[in-house]
Amino acid sequence: MGLYDFIVAGRYRLDASRPYQVDLALDVPEPLRGVVEDFLKLRVGGYDCGSPQILALTALLYFSMLPLHNDDRRRQYAMLANAYRLAHLAEQAA
């Protein structure tokens, strides 16, 4: 659901040209989108994978990855934008 591999592989479009605004579009093939949707419907160990709590924790994970990717400022912006994307999903799921 976080699509980390796509960010690390550079399969995204990023617009960070405006102050305080970062737009991220992940280059995810349509079949994989279905896999992500199916994953979000799963229940593992008593937890719903698409629950607001799990999505919020995943967003926090991406925030924590920012220092780990300090070798590539653009990738850091993609991680930041992805964290906000996941936080927004958590809000929608609440």
Describe this structure in words.
The protein has one domain. The chain has a two-stranded antiparallel sheet. A hairpin with a 2-residue loop joins β1 (12-18) and β2. It is of the alpha+beta class and 94 residues long. The two termini are 17 Å apart. The chain has helices at 4-8, 30-40, 52-64, 73-93; strands at residues 12-18, 21-26, 43-44, 47-48. It is built from four helices and four strands, in the order αββαββαα.
Using brief descriptors, characterize the structure shown.
single chain; alpha+beta; 53% helix
Strand content: 15-25%
Rg, Å, rounded: 14 Å
Tally of helical segments = 4
What order do the SSEs take from the amino end to the carboxyl end, as H and E?
HEEHEEHH
Number of domains: 1
Low-confidence stretches: none
Structural class: alpha+beta
Helix content: 40-55%
Anisotropy-based shape: globular
Give the strand order of the largest sheet, numbering strands 1, 2, ... along the chain.
1-2
Mean pLDDT value: 93
Biggest sheet, open or closed, and with what strands and sense? 2 strands, antiparallel
End-to-end gap: 17 Å
